[in-house]
Amino acid sequence: MKKININKSDEAALIVEKIIEADAGEIVLIIPRFSQLSESLGNFHLLKREADAIDKKILIESVDNRVIELAELAGIEAVNPFFIKNKRQFSDIIPKKEKASPKKTRATAAWRKEEEFIERLSNNLEAGDLTKKNFYGEEKTRVVKMEPEPELNKIEGAWEENEEKESFLNKINFKFILGFLVLVFIVYGAIVFLPKADLKIVTKKIDWAYNDSIITQVSAKIDPKTLTIPNQKFTSTKNTTMFFPATGKKQVSNKATGTITIYNSYSSDAQTLVQNTRFLSPDGKIFLLTKKIVVPGAKISEGKILPSSIDASVVAEKAGEDYNLGPVKLFSIPGFKGTPKYQAFYGESKNSMSGGFVGEVAYPTASDISDATKKIKDTLENNLKTTIYAQISSDFKILDGASSFSITKQTNNTDVDKDGNFSIFADAQLTIIAFKEADLIDLLKQKAESENNDIYGVKSYTLDYGIARMDSANGRLSFPVNYKAVLSYKIDVDKLKSEIMGKTDVELKKIIFALPGLDTANISLWPFWVKKVPNKLNKINITVD
Q1: Distance (Å, rounded) from C-alpha 404 to C-alpha 122?
Q2: C-alpha distances in angstroms, 380 versus 108, 282, 411?
Q3: How deeply is 403 buried, as exposed, middle or buried, from its count of CB atoms within 10 A (0-12, 13-18, 19+)?
């Protein structure tokens, strides 16, 4: 068997060719609604005759009742695959054993006339008198456009009227079936999904409070007897240098200072130079040694003297900016003038002489230094807190008084720079001891419930803290708390669900109102017709207040 899908626009001659070319003895033609074949009964006679001629059996599947009826009139087996075939009675159109009226005779004659034309067309094809091109071209137009007799039009009108009635009935049947299915679904849902039991139980309440200290220790465990919980210690260090404006003013007379390199090209003997030995610059500026030095002896190599040298600090003879000299290639020693050593001992400044000044300058007052010390302390403490807090997870609690900050080193530089600022260097350390609040709540919960024989559980609470006291060296922290709790009688909800599952409403009430510690209860079985607790745990909802 082979199935051939027919398009709406496929004509009888094209379908005949598909039947001839099919390599099966039994062929099912699947014809859609509003196919061109349904325009004429003769199309189906042509299909039947050509199939019989090549000894092939054809069947028709269609959801178009008109196609089915025309096929059956032509002697072709036809079925609707979705609905039971509704066989029409055409006795009022073509009576089998009754004398036809003139109108019916004319209708039958119209069919015969069309059949004769199709037969002649088929014979011409077999005889080769009509080419395939003409058959699908010009002659095809004659088949499609052929107008049936007026009586045939009336017959087709009757078919269309019957189809409209059937379509209307089908719509009614579909709505009825859909409504029935919806009703079944609602009933099924009401039976399977809707039944449920809601119980709201209110138990007896008591108050409990704790207003005393809690101790935390690094190595401790949660212990309601000793009232201790574990803590964690966090420590960090940081240093910084900060500059602050000097607000004091004073008159000063400062001498320029610097360093010179002193050379000995005189002999291999060392030469001692006392403090305040003078060195003269080319422009007549005198600088004095700040302390006694010994210039090492020169080296003698192959009869030649190789000068030795030593660096020494000097200070200007007088105050003032005139002594702020740049590097000087040659300083002479006036004390050696008139001796052979005058040319053999000399000095050189490779860097500038600076600091010479006469006039008013800024300086840090005691208040400036005090304020600066506080600012650098606050800055370091805030920076350290930011650093440590970034390391502490959110479940830790940090109380007031639970931190220790100290400046471990501080250096005050009271020399004022060109912008009038002095500087302070400080090194600081911060230690924080924190604990997990969940540990404290668990501790107080255990204590409250143990003191009430574990038949009451904490329903709600409030918790306030006092100022903590910290022992940083031993990692110990203690602090006062004010804990107030409302305890309610404990109900084992899972056990209660198992006990009431499947019970009648009367049995349910007996079980619920016999519960110890019960204050009030509200029981609801839903929908209203339900008289038993569902047999599924997920259909039982119990809330305990």
Answers
A1: 114
A2: 115, 51, 15
A3: buried
Q: Which residues of 273-288 are buried (b: 16+ CB within 10 A; e: fewer)?
A: beeebbbbbeeebebe
Residue with tokens 């919806």: 182
DSSP tag of 100: P
| pTM check: above 0.70 | no
SS3 state of residue 375: helix
Residues 6+ apart with CB under 8 A from 253: 319, 320, 357, 358
Tokens 């009576």 label which residue?
A: 95
Task: Give, for all 545 residues of the chain, the pLDDT tens digit.
Answer: 889 999 989 998 899 988 988 888 899 999 998 898 888 898 999 999 999 988 899 999 998 999 999 999 999 999 998 764 444 444 343 444 444 444 444 444 444 554 555 555 545 544 444 444 444 444 433 333 334 444 444 545 555 555 566 566 666 777 778 777 777 666 565 555 678 999 899 999 999 999 999 999 988 899 998 999 999 999 999 999 999 999 999 998 999 999 999 999 999 999 999 999 999 999 999 999 999 999 999 998 887 889 999 999 999 999 999 999 999 999 999 999 999 999 999 999 999 999 999 988 899 999 999 999 999 999 999 999 999 999 899 999 999 999 999 999 999 999 888 889 999 999 999 999 999 999 999 999 999 999 998 899 999 999 999 999 999 888 899 999 999 999 999 998 998 988 888 889 888 888 988 888 888 998 888 887 888 899 888 889 999 98
Burial class of residue 310 in the structure, from the number of CB atoms within 10 Å of its CB (0-12 exposed, 13-18 middle, 19+ buried): middle
Q: Which of 173, 165, 162 is nearest to 66 (CA)?
A: 162
Torsion of CA 440, 444, 449, 450, to 10 degrees: 100
> What count of other Cβ atoms lies within 10 Å of the Cβ of residue 529?
9
**Token pair listed for 237:** 């260090």
| Strands 328-332 vs 345-349: parallel, antiparallel or unpaired | antiparallel
Inter-residue contact 441 to 266 (CB < 8 Å): no
Beta bridge partners of 40: none
What is the radius of gyration, based on Cα positions, of the chain?
A: 59
Comparing C-alpha atoms, which of 349, 249, 255, 358 is closest to residue 309?
349
Q: Where do the domains of the chain lie?
A: 2-168, 194-204+491-544, 250-360
Strands of 191-231, DSSP E:
196-203, 205-217, 228-230
| Cis preceding linkage at 307, omega within 30 | no
Say if CB 140 and CB 11 are below 8 A apart.
Answer: yes
284: left (phi over 0), alpha (psi -120 to 50) or beta: left
